[in-house]
Amino acid sequence: MKIETRLAQAGLCTDQATGAISTPIYQTTTFRHPAVGVSTGYDYSRTGNPTRQVLEATVADLEQGDRGFAFASGMAAITAVLMMFSSGDHLLVSDDLYGGTYRVLERNFRQFGLSVDYVDTSDLTAVAGKIRLGETKAILVETPTNPLMKITDLAAIAALAKQHGILTIVDNTFMTPYLQRPLELGADIVLHSGSKYLGGHNDVISGLVVTAAKELSERIGFIANSTGAILGPQDSWLMLRGIKTLALRLEKQQQNAQFIAEWLTRQRIVTKVHYPGLPDHPNHAVQARQSSGFGAMLSFRVADPDWVAKIINRVKIITYAESLGGVETLITYPIKQTHGDIPAEVREQIGVTADLIRLSVGIEDVNDLIADLEQAMAGGEL
Ligand SMILES: Cc1ncc(COP(=O)(O)O)c(C=O)c1O
What we know:
37% of the residues lie in helices and 15% in strands. By secondary structure, the chain is an alpha/beta fold.
C-alpha cells in the first residue's frame, strides 16, 4: 500500500470485540492476569499499552523500521536515544539544530561524560575530519536543520558512519516519513518530536523513535521501560488521529511554503530566504533526491534586526508562538525562543542571528498569509 493509504488507515479497526474503527483508548495502568503464570500479553502500561502500541507499530511501518517507541515528548525520545551511550563516548552532532537538543547534550549528558562535537553535517569532509577512531559512537543529524534549513546528504553520511562502525541517528521532525525516510537511506535510528507535523494540530506533546534493526530495538525498548518516559494512552490516540491526515496537511503546507518563500525573495527588506525548495538553495538537488518534497519550514533574514520585533508584533493571522508543524502558521524568533539556550557566540558562529525569523507554514489560504506578512512588513517602510 502507498503511504497515503497507510496514513489514512493508521490504527483502523484494531478492536476485535466491537469492530470500533477508531483505536480504543486503553486508559489503564495494569492488566488482570487470568491465572498465575498466564498473561494476556500486557502486564503494566509503562511496559506496554495497547493504544500506544498501535501508534508505535504505525510509526515503525511509516518509517519502514523494525520497531517504534512513543515517548512523552521529543526531548524524552532524544534522551532515551542518548542513554544508549556511556561515559567516554563521543558524538558528532549537526551544528545548526534545535536548541533543546543542544541544551540536553550540554547541560545533562556532558555531566555523565559524553563528549560532543558540533559540525556542519552538510559538509562530509568536515564530518570525516571530526571522527575519533574508537571513540565516536554516533552521528546525530537534523536535516533540514532548525532554523537554517541546511541539508545533509543522508545516504553519504550513513555510508561514512558505517565505514567507521558508527550509528547514524536522524531527527526527521521537519520532514516526517511522508517526505523522507532516513532508514531507507542507511540510517540506524530515526526520531521525531511528534508534537510537530505527526500530531499536526498543536495539541499534543510527544516523541517517537524508530529503530532499523532488532538489536537496537531491544536497547531502546529496555531504556523506554526502565526509565519510563512513555506516552500516555490519550496522547497516543491523539497522535493516531493526527497522523491520518499527514499527507493532506503536508501537501498543502509545503505548497503554501513554496509560494511564501518565493514571495519573500522579492521583498526589498528581505536579505535572504532559507528554504530548500528554492532552486538557489545550496543543497536543493540533494533534498530533491532524498526526499519527496521540501517541507513547510522556512526562515528569512531582514535588512535591519530592529524590524524583526515590528514584523512579529504586527502579524494578525500568523501567530507568534514557539513550535512548528501544526495546521496554523506560526512565526518564531529563534534567538529569543527555540535557540535562546545556545550561547550567543555559538549562535553568531552558525548564523542564528538577530535578523533571522522562522516560519512554520500552515494550511490557511496562502493569499491571506501573504497579505498578513505584507501588512506586517508595511510595504517595506518599517
Ligand atoms: C527538530 C526538533 N527536534 C526535537 C524537538 C523537541 O521536541 P518536543 O518539544 O516535543 O520535546 C523539537 C522541538 O521544537 C524540534 O524542533
